[in-house]
Amino acid sequence: MALRKLAVSLWKTISQPARHFSLGFLTFGGFIAGIVFWGGFNTALELTNTETFCISCHEMRDNVYAELKTTIHYTNRSGVRATCPDCHVPHEWTDKIARKTQASKEVWGKIFGTISTREKFVEKRLELARHEWARLKANDSLECRNCHNFAFMDFTAQSKRAADHHARFLASREKTCIDCHKGIAHRLPNMAGVAK
Amino acid sequence: MRDQDRQGLSAALGLGAALATALAAGALLAAEGTATLRKADILEQPAPPHMARVENKDLKRARNYPEQPPTIPHHIRDYQIDRNVNKCLTCHSRTAIEQSQAPMVSVTHFMDRDGQVRAAVSPRRYFCLQCHVPQTDARPLVGNTFKDVDAIIRGGKGD
After folding, report:
1. How much is the pTM?
2. Which of A85, A79, A80 lies closest to A65, judged by CA?
């Protein structure tokens, strides 16, 4: 009963015009508050979208990040490199929000230590990898293509073997990047049960 | 002078003499040119040679003798070969070659040590890089007088 009373009085308050604040204060104040809150939200979001943030957890730092370090996506002749979110978070805003919402599961995992030891991580690695493969398969390897744009790919500069395969499978859209390029940035789990 | 001190002094003198001999020998060797692949005096730290590049032409190379394991004509950077997965076999396995058009691992790799052909690559042949290696453009450090068997047959005595 008390709760109902509270709800009714709250509704009465917000459904009435402001008694003490001017219209100007409310519109401009609301505008500025909007900027502050929106800016703050986006800044916080972008802060979680950095490699520094990812490897602030030992689960990422000691496993997947350590493995990335020897690969061509971390060190190469030209010094261009991919950081965690480049491949694991969509760049478009709506997709990014969707992925970040999914990531709440990862917060849960962090709190309850789902992969808090190397053994737990290895145990769960195939499942985690499958999620990433499924995501990249579903979006046609979107995160790969953010850098590796097929339209600008020069087959003549590739080795014969690479050019042949890209011409046969990628150009025809028969396959997408992740179909062949699994495990290029991290070690692979046991692939015995994974369809080629 | 106490006994202990005298011992210390003679030890120091002995060490000094040994050091002097070593230095003299080093100087002598340096004068003759050190006979190592390092090509620098033992006290020098020469600039390392440029890293050789892996040949990535995808062209099969001639074998120097029939049993020679073929060399790998492409890059294999970061190829994972362990208990979990064998990256080479994603193209060279029996079933993968239809798509990859790569040469299949030869049937000898499916044999166990009794010569029985098994369904999959035998564990003793699983680690490809034990025999098959990529080649680089590095120049040989020393020459060699290897002759192809055909040349020997043609040349009679092998000259």
Report:
1. 0.78
2. A85
